[in-house]
Queue: 2 jobs
Job 1
Amino acid sequence: MATREKINAIVAIACAAAVSLVVAALYRRLRRRRAAGWRCCSEFEDKPQNRFKRVLADNSYAPFKHFKREEKEEVSLKMHPFEEEITSLLENPPALLNFITTHEYSDMSASYVWIDTEHQLEYLAKLLSEEQVFAVDTEQHSLRSFLGFTALMQISIEREDFLIDTIALHDVMGILRPVFADPSICKVFHGADNDVLWLQRDFHIYVVNMFDTAKACEILSKPHKSLAYLLETYCGVSTDKTLQREDWRVRPLSVEMIEYARIDAHYLLYIADCLASELRRKSPDTSACPDDKFNFFFEASRRSNMVCLQLYVKEIESTPGASAAASILSRNLSVQGVTSWKSSEIKDLIWKLCAWRDLMARIHDESLRYVLSDQAIVSLAVRIPKEPIEVYDVIQQADLDNGSSNIYSILPSPSPIVSTHIKELCFLLREASANIDDVFRRFLQKHLGPIGCCPLSAYNYAILSEFSLKQTNTLFMKHAGEKFTSTIGKKASRELFVQKFSCKSPVYHNCRIYASDGRLLCYCDRRKLEWYLKRDLAKVVEDDPPAIMLLFEPKGRPEDEDNDFYIQSKKNICVGCGEKNHYLRYRIIPSCYRMHFPEHLKSHRSHDIVLLCVDCHEIAHSAAEKYKRQIAEEFGIPLFVRKIVDSGESTVATVSSKSLGVIEETGVSPLQLRTAAMALLRHGSSMPARRYEELIQIVKAYFGGREISREDLEMALLVGMSPHERRRLEKKKGLSFRHHEQSIIYKSSTSSNGETIENNIKRNNSIHISQESLKDYVKNIDGRQTNTSASDMHAGLLLSGDNSPSGNVQCLNKTEEWERRNICILSNGHGHGDLQKETCEAVLPSTSYQVPSAKAAKKLSLLGHGPHGKQVVEHLLNKYGEDGIRQFCQRWRQVFVDAIHPRFLPSGWDIMHSGRRDFGEYSVYNPSKKALHTAN
Ligand code: AMP
Ligand code: MN
Ligand code: ZN
């Protein structure tokens, strides 16, 4: 009985366990299926590169950014950061050294050191820093990655072999940067051409002082220069080079792979030593010319270091996939004969399929070959299957026909990428005439990103960003023979500007967080970044200042209401778009009206002065100018005065806006204004009449169409720059000067006669730009008419100033563009007054126009819309009293909100703001109320 009970109990338990197992399995499957619907591409695949947090070369079309050395201020990201050191080595080759102490090679011992922690790597860096020479080799993985990545690094010193797990240590490999760049430590490679570039691409490691045994072979005219030959000849070691193509991502590495990898570096020091001796023997009597070019060792060293000067670049194609398409076409042209390739449909399809493959490979971070083979592309283009099954068949057959002969035969055919995206592939094959641009845009929108099914990784995030999309666009458009539109050029150059010249923000919250679509979410401190990085929720996209990109869709966006998370650093950002790097003050209620308000109604100024970036500033200003015209019509009070006479009896007359043309319509940006004014001031008299007229129109448009005086031009240069900014600029340049008649001072940072700037000021009250640099600068400004280059943007923004403590001045020092031009523009500090008094819309000493003095008349001429404003305000006060003014302000806030759709306004800001705290109901944060208000 007791046994039966026991058995029953056991059966019951077993059943319960079985049921729970089944339930768990079902649940797992359910979850998996749900997940599959979400991420269809690489559902359970864990590619090691997905764990990299710092990806220097992503798969976007953006150019590769090289390492920027902190101590080097004026270098571009396209330059070799260690060019100077390497050039110096080329000129003075390092003295002949002993690569090993004993001139004998040691067999590989049983032990080696596997390095896969940051701590170990630091230890190795320290150890190597005390060596005179070490040997290096790397192994790459390229099949399951678009650009490839370094999977292993072998470093050997005489007594030890180190194998560095560059996958595990990918993000911290920079630890070895100093030893690789140390000119006093020789790095021995064999055939370093690729290694040098790979090290730059993955780790920003640059080799300075190298001895390449392949270069030595070249000079010694060896029958072969392969490492296998050298190993055989000098060390009697034979290697199996097929191991070269192993999948070096696997961990742990097999015994054979470890052996192979060690051999590639272990004997290099000995081989280098042998080759160096031969080079020495081959050199003519060195006592006659000890260090000249007849010294063969020096020549080997020179050639090796020439390799170090190479820079990694991402391949640039006229259109995505173009080079592959060209190569496929040319190969098959010769095989299949010209006739069948005449068909433009086939050619077009090959081009499209190559473009598709290129994009898919970039997004999924796979090699082109993994996505779709060349021969499959040819078959698809020739046979044009329409249904998924047929497409699979064609691909499979093509790979089978071709596959048996190569190592790729083990690859899945069709690839999982093809299977996942079969619909689009069929669409591409079916709709021969489809606009490829639209097709790709759809692909990107549908599949990538938080709601798409393709993985969003550190490698492809940038493909999402507007810049890369625009770039892609441009490329496609170029292919289609369409015109490169200037807006795209403008956008791209603006991006380039932001990328290249963006200024540093205060240290305590200079870190940025971007959404996966490239949208700036917020500024924060370093700790917040680290929080995300630790949890694998983000990847680093910028080092200095640091920025991360979230790999998930955040719960809220900055524009969401009540999202304190994002509003924490709202103080010094563009209230429109959140731009932080630069901003100007903007007055929501134009000064031409406000200045005539009764004193007590002016007191809410802070509410109606906001910060805007140049872009938003331009939009807001343009909208305000338009609205002024509307008001002018509504009240029957014309905007423009032709001339303001001394007596104050303003002769009011409308100026024909014909001459102002397009500018009138779109408004003038402060940047446009300043550059135009600058050019006019310096070269007005000598510039071509047509150009002169163009520039005058720009300035005129800003000043409401009236005639322009020299003061206007000088004032125009100051638009948007606060006294504080100017003081900082002066301080930074070690300058301090007082206000003089000459209100604008131009400074050449390297005075040609060596005279100090202060002295110059004392004597002349001004400093003049050297003619040459000026010409250069003006040329640059003149160039802007056709397209806005990044340097123009920079010039403009430099002028605009920046409120961040280390703002533009720093850019100015660091920017090679700018340094080349050798100019900086300083304005005198007017003191501590309000910005209002500094800008073009100057404030009168009294609110009346009846000012007799000539000085005041001059100021009067700066007013632009002043007379109009005065009449409007008087009209409002007479007819509606102060309520009229309040309503008038509300109208202007509405204009501003409609133009900018500001997302970063301070929480208390309100259209209905009146001094009483009655905001809330009509808050801009409450869009539903907006329409209601507009109806008022
Ligand atoms: P090695 O310079 O021999 O150490 O090769 C370094 C890396 O280059 C290897 O890990 C491979 O990824 C790549 N590689 C070199 N030669 C070949 C080849 N013939 N085929 C494929 N990959 C190669
Ligand atoms: Mn190797
Ligand atoms: Zn903005």
Job 2
Amino acid sequence: MKVCVIGVGYVGLVTGVCLAEVGHNVICVDKEKSKISSLSEGVCPIYEIGLKELIKRNLNEKNITFTSNLTEAIKSQDIIFICVGTPPLPNGKPDLTALDDVSKLIGSCLNGYKIIVNKSTVPIGTAKRVKKIIKENAKEESNKNGSPIFDIVSNPEFLKEGEAVNDAFFPERIVIGSESQKAIEIMKQLYKPIINQDFDYAIKNSKNTRKKIPVIITDSTSSELIKYASNAFLATKISFINEVANICERVGANVVDVTYGMGLDSRIGSKYLKAGIGWGGSCFPKDVRALAFTAEEYGAVASILNAVIQVNNYQRYRIIQKAMDILGIIEDKIIGVLGIAFKPDTDDTREAPSITIINKFLELGAEVKAYDPVIKKCPEEMDDKVIIAKDVYEAVKNADLLILVTEWPEFSDIDFNKVKSEMKRPNIIDGRNMLDKKQLTEIGFNYRGIGI
Ligand code: UGA
């Protein structure tokens, strides 16, 4: 099938490449010309496991092309995915400028029946908004036989950064929200190889017995809400366990054991129940805020969502409090930080806890040296007084305190005897409960975890 993906950000690129891999003809469009020219040469702009190889293969096999010519791409393809950015405005509401502009252009380019798919996480009601804009800009509303010239579908993504290719090929569900039966049937055709798990990559790489992927058919508004409610629920689980972790610290319980005991109850489940420094990234913070905003806009009460955000902000502040407990005055202290990315296996630093924490320590007058296996320069939102260390041992040299912020797997292999000998004082805050408390204590570290 002929697919156009507008916006080659994280979601658009993974969606386009994966649809090409399962056999569709895909054109990816972006206004950033430099990105398009490097993608055309097989250079992947993001760090995402397996994506680079898929881009190269599908370019070679001519299943995918990258262009900046949006009008041509819309005209030549039948299914148009909108994957443009919807960054948050200062009031928490997503900025829909790019989405509106693209919708206007799609309207003016309609030259035959097309399906317009909202893949970006967009505010509830956006499918209807896009439909209205396209209608206003289209030359005709229907074909000669009276059938509509386009239909709108909401088809949210559930991709986790670092596992996006895997999530795209082996999703837990596919949600198709539309008021048009015709569009729903075409979308089912588009996803048929993924639904049936019978494309080459699945046959070669599926870890489980291949079984059909559930498809949820619903109206466009419910589909939009499925996305927000899913992210908000996961964020709620994390904030919940972080609150429990803080109670554990007060009463002398161990949150790791508590979580294990809770998670074995299949009604609760152990996933997204790891206590730590709190959630970050480009999705949870934006989506929880946006859902709370929508609730308030429509006169619904968002007490849980607001509490979830509050607990998460507090969780970052807890690290500062713990550091103050250990060090007293922070000014002139040297703090080593392990991990800058908002989570492992990604180079994304958007709303990363590292930013809030490092900026606060710098503001309090500490010297901060941070090491991340992938991030080699100071992120834009981070105070550039931070020193980006070339390895763990440089980050901890002469440090009064070491804080583990991101649980990169390689941090399990650190030689903590060597770390201790490099540090001025052997203090460690393990913000992800990743390290072995017993072993570190035996070496002589003053170890603090989260809720343990
Ligand atoms: C999240 C969702 O998991 C995806 O399903 C969704 O498609 C995506 O947002 C999106 O809306 O695009 P992502 O932001 O990539 O994916 O990250 P996650 O792996 O879900 O982690 C989010 C945050 O929660 C991270 O900061 C992570 O460190 C934190 N986390 C996660 C915890 O603190 N504890 C946990 O137990 C799990």
